[in-house]
Amino acid sequence: MCIASFLQVAIKLSINKLTFDDGFDGFVDAIHKNEFALLEIEPEHIKETMNLPHIHRDPFDRMLIAQANLDDMATGCIFYLHPVLCTTSLPAVLKC
Fold first, then answer.
1. Contact of 77 with 86, CB cutoff 8 Å
2. What is the mean pLDDT of residues 73-86?
3. Alpha-carbon distance 45 to 65, whole Å?
């Protein structure tokens, strides 16, 4: 899971567009409990966002797509119409 997803969850919680048992702490606990690996944002990920077509303008989506492209992680895809290899679908809980 991209560390940027933590920021996105925090923002959505703060504007009441997302709810999570025990708020942000509950989200973090669930990530650790389910043993998600955290993917840091590296300079090359940021640079890759510059090369993406502007199908998705959301910066969080663009970061996830860039990381998937560079780190060969495109095993699930919620970014329709984007040229990222999609081979399986994500669990419904992870879809936006």
1. yes
2. 52
3. 9
